[in-house]
Design goal:
38% helix, 7-stranded mixed β-sheet, 12% strand, alpha/beta
Length: 464
Amino acid sequence: MTHAFISYSRKDTDFVNRLERDLNARGLLTWRDIHSIPGGAKWFRRIKSGLESSYAMLYIDTPNAEYSEWVEKEFLYGAAIGLPVIPVKIDAGFMSLHTINLNPILCDEANYAVGLVKIAAELAALPKKPVVPGALPPPEQADDAAPDESGRLPDHAQEVRDYLKWLLVKTHADLRDALYVRLQAAPERSAPRAPDPDAFDSGLDIDFEMGFDRLALERIQGEQFDRSGEEVTDARLPLHEMRRAILLGEPGAGKTTTLLQLAVDEARQAQAKPETARLPVFVPLREFDGRQVFEDFVSKRLYNLQDAYPDLHSAGRLLLLLLDALNEMPRRGADGRDLVAEVRDYLSESDKNAWVVSCRVRDYQEELSALRDAGKVRLKPLDPPRIYEVIRRRFIGQFAPQGIATAEDGEKLWQAMYGSDGLLKAWNVFVACGRADAFWGDHWPYDVKAPRVGFFWDTPGYGD
């Protein structure tokens, strides 16, 4: 019999025990993972099976769930495979971003009986078929992977395909959070949401505000950070060519977005060649606090491949490690360990795997310059013309067709940011004079003037 999947934080177990018991008493079968440790390879396998063999997800919408990375992964994977979501609230004053477009059922103590009836009615109205046809529920126990009847180990090729699904789901969500600004809430929906079931097949395409061909990059020669580098027209080219690379940029330049886009690009290539292509692994360094050694921290980002990767590595399968935001990482662990040195040593000893690390120039000079044979690519900050282009592209190309906002709203946003034709003209003057670096300064430099102007900015009477 098909079940409804319960996605919840284990900190809310008491409520979930009560809800599950009452739903089961009404003949509604439910499933939740109570055996495996969240984040382990077994957990990913069981959650995948549990979600794919469900006909709906009950999402217990609480602050605990909002801040649980494991609940987030369940929600994202369920959404990606088209699983209808029924959000359940136990606090009338809380709503997460996950359910902002849905119509949660309030099920706090005062409204529990009524809420239970509504939940049961919505579940009863849904077809009792697995969202993925033919999917089977996971076994009762979280057993280790075992050989099949022929004595062979599980198919690693399938595990690789599953890993790429998990990666694309999470990366897609991270990119959406990094790039999309919700300007207007969509109307509430009274029915469970069933997202696009073809999300995986389409490669989880999103409209990148700053696509690879729109990022302003330059390749740095040696340690010459005070000079302009070689212009790069496509961010993927040098990062693909370099086996080891440092992605440099000041805060807000787009380092995280670039690495996330690179993860998507590499994952799509791996989907096309699941047997041979290198596997991207996105590693948020800001989360490395030293509670585990760095090698284990990286391994956790392999999702369901944590146990299988030693076999894949022995067979020559390579990783592309995308290590984001070294400058945001804690410098010392609770035990006093030098965490930056641990990362640096790990990279130095990674003989086979390729990697890209993002950080500021200062962080590279102080902490990573000892790494040998690492190429360097620098992201240029957003300039006024590109900011204006992003706004126009978003409002005209996406928001206006969807009825979310108009092109005029985009112009108002640009003006609210003190954007104007005069600002764009001024930028062009700075560029023409080779002084773009001084544009954001406190004063207009004496040597910046428009062509055919016979006086400088500080010429007496010019301001009059």
